[in-house]
Amino acid sequence: MTEDVCSIEENDDLSNLLQTMQVMRFRHTPVTDGNHLVGLLSERDVLRVSASSLLPHAEQQDQFVQQHFRVRDVMNRELTTVSPDTPLQEATQLLLQQRVGCLPVVDENNVLLGIVTESDLLRVLADLLPAS
To answer: Does the pTM exceed 0.90?
Structure first.
């Protein structure tokens, strides 16, 4: 799991969020209230509320959305999470079965401890494969 996780608060606005996620190469950002996990915001969630660049006045539409909506308005609250003790095989199966790109790692009090992403699993696989 990745332990050094950047999170956002559910009351944050959407200004520059998509650009920040793209620059930082995040596709998923946990949403917290203090240190407790309350949701997850994906790049897809942000794109869903963004105006198409093909539309006239798209920039103004995006500015309106970014100024008037909050993370809580677009985040996903129905999450599949794992604990630090969840076996890697079980986490992998959850990613496949739930068709999600990440699993937040939380303790028994729902405190965010880290995140397991598809990229984390690919790194494990790469380390296990023989070098050619």
So the answer is: no
Beta bridge partners of 36: 33, 111
Q: DSSP 3-state assignment of 123?
A: helix
Q: Are 86 and 122 in contact (CB under 8 A)?
A: no
- In 11-128, DSSP assigns E strands to 28-33, 36-42, 102-106, 112-117
CATH classification for the domain delimited by 8-128, as one of 3.40.50.2000, 3.10.580.10, 3.90.1520.10, 1.20.1070.10: 3.10.580.10
In total, the chain counts a number of residues equal to: 132
- Convert the pLDDT of each residue in 52-110 to its tens digit: 555 566 676 666 666 667 889 889 999 999 999 999 999 999 999 999 999 999 999 99
Listed by start position, the domains of the chain span 8-128
